[in-house]
Amino acid sequence: MNRLLAIELQKIWKNRASRILTISYFALLSSIALIASLKFDFGPIHFDIVKMGIFNFPYIWHFNTFFASWFKLFLAVIIVSMMSNEYTYGTLKQNLIDGMSKKEFILSKFFTVALFAFASTIFVFIMTLILGYSFSSYTEIGIVFSQMEYLLAFFVELLGFFSVCLFLGVLIRKSAFALGFLLIWKLFEGICYLAMKWLLFDTWEKSYQALGYFPLQSISNLIAEPSRRLSAIKTAGNQAGFDMNYDYSIHLSSILIVLIYTVIFIYSSYIIIKKRDL
Prior knowledge:
The chain is mainly α. It has 13 helices and two strands, in the order H-H-E-E-H-H-H-H-H-H-H-H-H-H-H. The chain has a two-stranded antiparallel sheet. Helix 2 packs antiparallel against helix 4 (72-88). It is globular and about 60 Å long. The relative contact order is 0.12.
């Protein structure tokens, strides 16, 4: 595994665009800390994001992992380009000539995306502890390390999404077309959501639940949008007559669905490489 990872990381680091995107990705993850400085007055209303409780333990685990997950598109570009460069520069064929098997080639890519997912998770873990201990009103050990299942969901979300990107990179070869197809795929799932409502189900809720078994939506569903958990927003919503009782927990079934898709996409990538005339 170490040999395969070393080969892939060397390829990424020697590519200037990939190197810049990787550095930019982790720099953007660090930008979560800048949210703590958001303070402004809107008429008689004083807005202070720290006082809203966003950085309180254990809520901060939910907020940071959800916010950080939006930046995964930067690494998606790297992963798709990683496969595109294999075809463009002929390194795939050269690796096979040098004795690497097609199975080892796909494993090297999978180990790389898993490393990106793990490194991102560790980075968010450390940053969350720093922000939490700096601003949280609750620093008891039992509270600090509760609800850390959001970190597991964050790791699985990245792993699943990167596996999709790897599959598209293998299938389509050209990075721009692969990323374009990713967008089309997302739109297709949205169309399926509407179609299921009109053709199969009598409520939007049932249609949305069925959509949760689609690849991209199942990945997005792992971590629910967290802002409605804040007491101020929950109170305002209840006063306006909205039902603010949502399920924010991480479900084992949701994680299993994404892990199954991860296996499917990685194995499909291997089958394509195995059967393709390189």
